[in-house]
Amino acid sequence: MNEVKSPKKPLIFYYVVVLIVLFLLNSLLVPYLASRQIQEVDYGTFMQMTEDGEIGEVEISDNEILFTDKDGTRIYKTGVMDDPNLTERLYASGATFSSEIVEEMSPLLSFFLYWILPILIFIGIGQLLSKRLMKNYSGGGNSMMFNMGKSSAKVYVKSADGIKFSDVAGEDEAKENLTEIVDYLHNPGKYKDIGASMPKGVLLVGPPGTGKTMLAKAVAGEANVPFFSMSGSEFVEMFVGMGASKVRDLFKQAKEKAPCIVFIDEIDAIGKKRDGQFGSNDEREQTLNQLLTEMDGFEGNNGVIILAATNRPDSLDPALTRPGRFDRRVPVELPDLKGREEILKVHAKKIKIADNVDFEKVARMASGASGAELANIVNEAALRAVRDGRACATQSDMEESIEVVIAGYQKKNAILTTKEKMVVSYHEIGHALVAAKQTNSAPVTKITIIPRTSGALGYTMQVDEGNHYLMNKEEIENKIATLTGGRAAEEVIFGSVTTGASNDIEQATKLARAMITQYGMSEKFDMVAMETVTNQYLGGDTSLACSAETQAQIDKDVVELVKRQHEKATQILIENRMKLDELAQYLYEKETITGEEFMKILNA
Ligand code: ADP
Ligand code: ZN
Fold first, then answer.
1. How far apart are the CA of 269 and the centre of ligand 1, in A?
2. With contact defined as beta carbons under 8 Å apart, do 510 and 541 qualify?
3. I need a labelling partner for 220 at 20 to 30 A (CA). Which of 80, 112, 322, 604 fits?
4. In sequence order, what DSSP letters do the residues of 541-566 get, joined into one string?
5. What distance in Å separates the CA atoms of residue 353 and residue 345, rounded to the nearest whole number?
6. Quick one: pLDDT band at residue 11, thresholds 50, 70, 90?
7. Which mutation among 176, 214, 267, 346 tests ligand 1's pocket best, with the greatest number of atoms within 8 A of CB?
8. Lowest mean pLDDT among 68-77, 139-148, 467-476
9. Contact (CB, 8 A) for 267 and 220
């Protein structure tokens, strides 16, 4: 899209004016001076010229002699010598004696040139600068320096290559929700007639990289209206009051351009709950207050629609989300299987890709990936194709790039000892085997023991069971057992343990804890919430809300729960020791095996 700066005469304009004035002055003065240029010559030349009768006028003063040639076009100058009969010789040569070869500049003119003109120029420049300053003062409220406090919201002028809804794959619910706004911007009369007013603000909430910014741009693109975009953090300045003046400015610009879309990204940067604690951020609060005032200030139907994005909706100030402000909330969730497939296809259009790429399979492998990650996967695939000198990206490029995005690049020079490689093989097969024996289905799409730059020495790519909204207690327990399966295999085979299970341990503990404190899956605590999720879209941090004794009890129960599943996993592995050996050996040799290969050996 074209970006257009707000119209304002740039400083360069004034420099150009000054330059032109100087140039004019020069071009008037220089020829005058050049025509009367005085050439300095030695006394000998002067005597020679006198002898040859080439002197036109001559003027002798105390310390120099000025003279011209016969035509009077050139002026010469030389020093004074002790030359007694010079006057006679000059007279004889036909020179005329003069007293004003170089006319003195008229005193009035020289006074003007040397005194008045410079002063005039300085006053002129001063005037121009102070005018600019004044403009900044009034425009920026209480701004203190040039341009501070001026809203730097960019204006995206509508353009043909703007983003459309069709560029945003998946997210059908969000699009449906926003279509109404597009319709309103196209045809506000329809809504006014019936007395309905559009929401002033729409809050897009969801995890990072799910296309919130894209959706906002698409609304502007579809409605063909200007798009003002600003990040919440840009409002918060060093000086108190500056952010507020930026908000004022942004809304002033927006009202002039209505109908239009104002997009505030990361609104939580200014919209955090005002808690009135000591040391709270005055600047942020003032900015927020200004935003609230502005939103109240304009009529519902003036065509300015504010979209804001955040991934921490629970931290927003309630005043911001009440009706009349950001009263509509549009969830923009991580894409499901179908959504992932569509996003991959949208981005694949931008690269050269083989016809036989199975997007569904790729989408299945990339479970849990956000739109931004999927875009990244497609790009990585194209890069890989270029690296290997292929004309287009293939299925294997896509699959490899998923692993790159999830686990980092292959570590080409990480050399594991034979023993380490063996341990990693058993560990990964341990996970897969425990999972397979519990569910009796293919648990994984791929297992590999090629070290990755992320630090993983091997990993197992789980099968995505499609859309799965509920998990029962047994399923979670099985999952914990699967997570402990890696460590269990090490114990069963080598009788000792390694550091390789730290991530498994973390995940297993998290699940076990959630069962007890959030999902009410323990008899002891029944349906009492011991923990609340504070950060739904950013990793799901939790905060405990129970007494110290209860905490101790929870910790004990978590340990017990994990231990039970660990024992179960060990039992499964001991019972299937033969398969475990066979599979681990196969993985050790092949380094990467698919889910099908795994199942074939298991069921053989
Ligand atoms: P957010 O604002 O939610 O953090 P963005 O809108 O900035 O995410 O998305 C980042 C990038 O991810 C986009 O530029 C786009 O390439 C890709 N992307 C995310 N979601 C989608 C989607 N639903 N369809 C197509 N591309 C997407
Ligand atoms: Zn593991």
1. 20
2. no
3. 322
4. -EEE-S-HHHHHHHHHHHHHHHHHHH
5. 10
6. low
7. 214
8. 139-148
9. no
Residue 213 CA to ligand 1 center (angstroms) comes to 7
Q: Which two tokens stand for residue 420?
A: 């380490």
Distance separating alpha carbons of residues 372 and 374, to the nearest angstrom: 5
Beta carbons within 8 Å of 59's beta carbon, 6+ residues apart: 65, 66, 67, 97, 98, 99, 100, 101
67 sits in which H/E element: strand 64-69
All residues with CB under 5 Å from ion ligand 2: 486, 504
- Distance from the Cα of residue 350 to its chain's centroid: 21
- Whether the CB of 124 sits within 6 Å of ligand 1: no
* pLDDT (tens digit per residue) in 355-383: 888 998 888 888 778 899 999 999 999 99
Which residues 6+ apart lie within 8 Å of 6 measured at CB? 155, 253
Whether the CB of 346 sits within 6 Å of ligand 1: yes
Pick the residue with more confidence: 64 or 577? 577
Compute the distance from residue 214 Cα to the ligand 1 centre, in Å: 6
Q: Is the pLDDT assigned to residue 249 strictly greater than 80?
A: yes
Backbone angles phi, psi at 389, to 5 degrees: 70, 30
Question: Token pair for residue 229?
Answer: 């975009």
- Tokens matching residue 23: 């140039």
Identify which of 157, 283, 161 has the alpha carbon closest to the alpha carbon of residue 226.
157
Structure tokens at 221: 């693109």
Quick one: pLDDT at residue 102? 67
Residue 226 Cβ contacting ligand 1 at under 6 Å: no
Residue 531 Cα, ligand 2 centroid: separation in angstroms?
27
Portion of the chain with pLDDT greater than 70, in percent: 83
Question: Nearest Cα to 235, choosing from 275, 269, 196?
Answer: 269
For ligand 1, pick from 165, 167, 202, 210 the residue to mutate: most ligand atoms within 8 Å of CB.
Answer: 210
Report CA torsion sign: 312, 318, 323, 324.
negative
Q: Phi/psi at 39 (nearest 5 deg)?
A: -105, 130
CA 399 to ligand 2 centroid distance, Å: 21
Ligand 1 midpoint to CA 301 (Å)? 30
Active-site entry in 373, 428, 477, 490: 428
207 lines ligand 1 (CB under 6 A): no
Verify whether ligand 1 is closer than 6 Å to residue 294 (CB atom): no
Using a 6 Å cutoff on CB, does residue 149 contact ligand 1? Answer: no
Q: Which of 369, 285, 358, 362 is nearest to 319 (CA)?
A: 285
Question: Is 283 annotated in the active site?
Answer: no
Which range has the worst mean pLDDT, 229-238, 308-317, 593-602?
229-238
Ligand nearest to the CA of 432: 2
- Is residue 336 within 8 A of residue 464, CB to CB? The reply is no
Among 267-271, 294-298, 386-390, 406-410, the least confident range: 406-410
**Residue 439 burial (C-beta neighbours within 10 Å; 0-12, 13-18, 19+):** middle
Q: What is the pTM of this model?
A: 0.66
pLDDT digit string, tens, across residues 517-554:
888 888 888 888 888 777 777 666 777 778 888 889 99
**CA-proximal residue: ligand 1, atom 7 (nearest):** 213
Q: Is the CB of 218 under 6 A from ligand 1?
A: no
